[in-house]
Amino acid sequence: MAADDANTDDDGSTDDDASTEAERWLVVNGRRWRRTDPSLPEPVVERLKSHLGRGRSGVRVAKSHGDEQAVADARTRVGLAKHGLGERGPRWWESSEAERLERAEEALRELDRLNEPDTAGSEPT
To answer: Does pTM surpass 0.85?
Structure first.
């Protein structure tokens, strides 16, 4: 057996393939969920997860009140946060770290804009 074959399984996969897959995917009840991009700085991840939690809570509350517009708005927040975390959109492992960080920071900028008061239609004082 060659040295290169030492860590190869019967199906041709290697231990490195398995660890890479484990870094990329979380499996729950047989379903694969994309993991958060591990290269993102912790403060960025914390802010994105805060937005994610608020979005999920907003979906739950809006559904309980039957407010479809609020459900859509909350789902927008969830989607932006998940894109920023790398859990949706382009696969984070296929982009450079700089591109991944820019995507996360752009998601935060958009999420922060959602928090700004709506000044449309208000009169200047």
So the answer is: no
